[in-house]
Amino acid sequence: MRGTLAKSLAARQAARAVLAACLIGLSLSILEVAWATWRERGKAAELSSQMLDLLEGGAATAAWNVDEGLAEQIGLSALSIGAIDGLEILLTPEQPLWQRFRHKGAEQDGINPMGRLVFDDLRVSDRLLYRPQADGHSRPPIGVLRIHFDMSRLSADYIAFVTSTLLSGLLRNLLLGLALTLVFHRFLTRPLLALEQHIAALDSGGRGYKRLPLPPGHEQDELGRLTQRINETLERLDNSQDQLRQLATRDPLTGLPNRALLQERLDHALSRARRGAGGIAVLFLDLDRFKTINDSLGHEAGDKLLRAAAQRLSHMLRGSDTVGRLGGDEFLVIVEEVREPKEAIQVADRILMAIAKPLEIDSEQLQISASIGIGIWPGDGEDAACLLRSADIAMYAAKAAGGAGWRMFSAEMSEKAINRLQTEARLRAAELREEFVLFYQPKVSPHDLSLLGAEALLRWRTERGFISPAEFIPVAEETGLIIPIGEWVLREACRQASQWRQRHGDLNMAVNVSPRQLADSGFADKVRTALALSGLPPALLTLEITETAAMNQASGDFVTLHRLREIGVGIAMDDFGTGYSSLSYLRRIPLTELKIDRTLMATVPGDAAIAATILELGLRLGLEIVAEGVETEEQRAWLSAMNCQTLQGFLVSPPVPASTFEPRFLADRVKAVG
């Protein structure tokens, strides 16, 4: 009951009305008391002046003549006045002519504290006495007339007035607040309560909401307009009820069942299957390279592609099957009454063939494909969650195999997925445990194998040994952990290069940069910070990027790459010749170095056409050429004859720790002067 009362609008209105009335009344009462205080103090001061004027002449005569009898006569006459509590006629401060007090000691301090605060400075009044002469006062004074006034009565009257004023004001304020509360309740709260009851009586299900009646007397005011707006809202609710039901179960873009409806239908299919209606196959489908198409042609084209894919899926399935969109470019197909796994495979093949047909989107001819993961009930999952998870894992296996195909779920896939999650968890703690270490591979001249630089390569050292970069780098890329890990690699490589420079002279250090790092708008500032902390000159740092990372910068006109070049660091395109980049971009990208991929060097010198073409292209563009994966003396001799500037590979050394690299490759190096 107390909680309901606290939430009541009427109760809150009453409290606010009373509070407002009390505050206003209190303010008025304080002003009234202040005015009364000023008035009473004025009266007391005027009384003091009148008494001094009345007694001044006689007191001056008594003081001039040192007439104690006259002084006593004047004093007794003065003490007969009720407002005077004492009188002194002083010749000097130490020599009184006559003095007497009606009250003494504590009796004189019996004034109320408030009265003392207001009137205490008026209790004693002095006036200098001068020799009585016809022509006025003479100097110097001959004494002092001091009157002590009794303020207790005045103080009591003042306190009584203040008390009555405040109490009457409080009572007046309470009555005013009560009146305001009744007015609010009559003209606002009661109509709102009636409106609330009408709204509560509305049926929340189905269409045909009853309209609310206008409160009598409120047709044109705010309450009437509020009722009209509620009725308009009810009208819109009636009109949109079917649309809401549609949105609750259908994907608004494709019109296919959404995740909620798919879950409901899968649960229903499982119930039927458990009653002997046959097996169930769940096909988890993801469009390949949809993000690339979406980014290249725009979101509108991507939406058209999704609608076209949804239409093709709907047309090639049986009426008993269900196809829906989970979100993004992911679709789910539920196939019922599956007797053998090959039936699910046949459905997957039909889907792949339908999806693979060319599409024309905004005058662009598109060829798309899909990756499909297949989960079969009951072998791949007893319930809906397990079955969906199995199909999802199988889909990722299909995508990892290159896409445009299907994969059946297997226990090995689940084990790989678990291992990937474990790798991610351990990867998050690796930096804190200081498990990362850098290895360095020398970069040398093909002519005389003299040391030119080094490439820093990340290694993950655990208690069970080193984990292959091919195993953890993709996980770090996908989860975004590559960004903090890459920053650590950059700082550590710069620190090591600066340390070697102090001991052995200039040495160029190459560091690999991931696409995620390059997409960071603040990456150039992080490079600048790493150089500043280590003291390494920018010219001695080269950042190696892949063709894919470079092409992702094309839409932004390679702004980040240009910022890096402005710092002074070199930029190398790693694995050149294996990607899909256009040669026209080579002039726009601020490269300083091209690296021939090891797969192209594997056929040298027998089949050296591609490697020779890259060498000639780089030399014509004024770029330094680095050949990777050099393992034989024949390859080195060919590179030397082709005027390649730099090579690296197992012919010279595999990547080694810093403790091995320094004595093996830097010990005999003469430090550059200056």
Describe the structure.
The protein has 674 residues and is of the alpha/beta class. The chain has three domains: 2-161, Beta-Lactamase; 259-409, 2-Layer Sandwich (Alpha-Beta Plaits); 435-666, TIM Barrel (Alpha-Beta Barrel), CATH 3.20.20. Helix 4 (113-119) crosses helix 5, helix 8 (290-297) packs across helix 9 and helix 16 runs parallel beside helix 18. The two termini are 88 Å apart.
Q: What would the CATH topology of the largest domain be?
A: TIM Barrel
Q: So, the CATH homologous superfamily of the largest domain?
A: EAL domain
- The strand count comes to 21
What's the overall geometry? elongated
What value does the Rg take, in angstroms? 49 Å
- Derived from helix and strand composition plus strand pairing, the structural class reads alpha/beta
The proportion of residues forming helix, as a percent range, comes to 40-55%
CATH class of the largest domain: Alpha Beta
Compact summary:
By secondary structure, the chain is of the alpha/beta class. The protein contains 22 helices and 21 strands. Strands 12, 13, 14, 15, 16, 17, 18, 19, 20 and 21 form a 10-stranded mixed sheet that branches.
Layout of strands and helices, then pairs:
Elements: H1 2-7, H2 9-65, H3 68-79, E1 84-92, E2 95-101, H4 113-119, E3 124-129, E4 143-149, H5 152-200, H6 222-249, H7 259-277, E5 279-287, H8 290-297, H9 299-315, E6 322-327, E7 330-338, H10 341-356, E8 359-361, E9 364-366, E10 370-377, H11 384-400, E11 405-408, H12 411-430, E12 436-444, E13 451-462, E14 465-467, H13 469-479, H14 482-504, E15 508-512, H15 515-519, H16 523-534, E16 541-546, H17 547-552, H18 559-567, E17 570-576, E18 593-596, H19 598-601, H20 609-620, E19 624-627, H21 633-641, E20 646-647, E21 656-657, H22 658-666
Parallel strand pairs: 10-11, 13-15, 15-16, 16-17, 17-18, 18-19, 19-20
Antiparallel strand pairs: 1-2, 1-4, 3-4, 5-7, 5-10, 6-7, 8-9, 12-13, 12-21, 13-14
Helix pairs in contact: 2-3, 2-5, 4-5, 8-9, 12-13, 14-16, 16-18
